[in-house]
Amino acid sequence: MAVTDDAGAADDDALYVLTAVLLTPAKFPSVLGDDYPEACAALGLASLAAGYGLVLGQDGDGARWTVVVDDVSLVAVAIASWDCGMEYDLSPDARTVVAALPGWPLAVAVAAPGVPAPHDPEPAPGDEDQQPLTPPESDVWGPAQRRLGADEIALRWAAWREQIDDADFARDHPDSAFPTDPEKAPLTGVRRVLAEARAYLDTPPPLGRVRSSFASGDARILRADGPGWSLVARTDDIAFVLLDEEPGEVLPVGRGPELPELLKALDEMAVRPS
Fold first, then answer.
1. Cβ contacts of residue 202 below 8 Å, gap of 6+?
2. Rounded to whole angstroms, how far apart are CA atoms 180 and 254?
3. Taking a C-beta distance cutoff of 8 angstroms, is the pair 57, 110 a contact?
4. How confident is residue 170, by pLDDT bands cut at 50, 70 and 90?
5. For the region Disordered, what residue ranges are annotated (predicted)?
6. What is the DSSP string of 63-89?
7. pLDDT tens, residue by residue, 109-165
8. Cα 163 to chain centroid, rounded
9. What's the whole-model pTM score?
C-alpha cells in the first residue's frame, strides 16, 4: 500500500493520510494497553525497542487503514510539524511498512476528500476472522476509558488542578494525602494504587508502565499504570488516580508525607521521550 498525503484523486492502492501517532516505549496510544509490550501485542507487533509509527488514513474506496511503519523519526517529525501548524507530506517508503491493519484504534474526526466516507474494509480472502481495529466506546467504562481519562488529565493538568483546593486535605491527619471526606471504597483503591506503584521501585514493571514527560519549570508530568488503575502526577505537586472499579471518578492524592518521595523515585525510573 502506497502512503500519500495527496487525496486529490482516488487511487485504490494509495493511503490518504489523516493523522499519525507514535508507538514507542515512552509514547504510545494508551487505549491499546497499560504498557508498551501490551500495546504492541494488541496490534500483533513485536515490542521492538525502537518502536513504530502508526499512520491512519483511508484508501481509494474510503476504507479505514492503520499502516505500521518502522521509520519512527519520519513519523515523529510529521507529528511535530503538524502540532506547530505546519504542512508536512508524510509519505513513508514502502520498505518501511511493517503491516497494514484494517480499521483505526483511535477516533479520527476528519476524512479524506474525494473518497467515500470512512468505513471498515471488507476482509481479504482467508482473513475473515480478523476484526478491524476500532476506537473504544465512549458510553462505557473500562481499562481503555480509564487510560484515556488519565491522558486527558496529563494533557490539561492546569485545568484539573485548579479544581482541587489544598484545604480539602487534612494536614493534621495521618492520611493527609487524602481528602477529608472520601468514601471507604475509593480510599482503599487509592491506597492499593500507591502500594502497587511503590512496588515498582523494587520490581521494575513492563516497559512503558511508568512514563515521564515535560512540564513547566523543573517538574515533570508522571504517568504510571497498572492492573485496573492509572496515576497521573506532577512531580512537584499532587496526583490523580483513576480506577476501573470507580467509573468516571478522578481521585486526588495530596502531597502528604510520602507522595513526594514516591514521585521522585518513579520519575527516576520512568521512560522518557528521546
1. none
2. 11
3. no
4. low
5. 113-143
6. BEEEEEES-HHHHHHHHHHHHTT----
7. 999 999 999 999 988 777 767 889 999 998 899 999 999 999 999 999 999 999 988
8. 23
9. 0.88
How are the residues of the chain apportioned to helix, strand and coil, as percentages rounded to the nearest 5?
25, 25, 50
Q: Where do the H-state alpha helices sit in 172-216?
A: 184-199
Which residues are CB-neighbours of 195 under 8 A, at least 6 positions away?
none
The Cα 56–Cα 111 span in angstroms is: 11
Please provide the average confidence, as pLDDT, over all residues in the chain.
90
Give the integer Cα–Cα distance in Å for 92 and 175: 53
Encode pLDDT of 154-164 as tens digits: 999 999 999 98
Residues 4-20 as b or e (16 or more Cβ within 10 Å = b): bbebeebeeebbbbbbb
d(CA 19, CA 13): 18
Please give the angle made by the CA atoms of 153, 150 and 78, to the nearest 5 degrees: 80
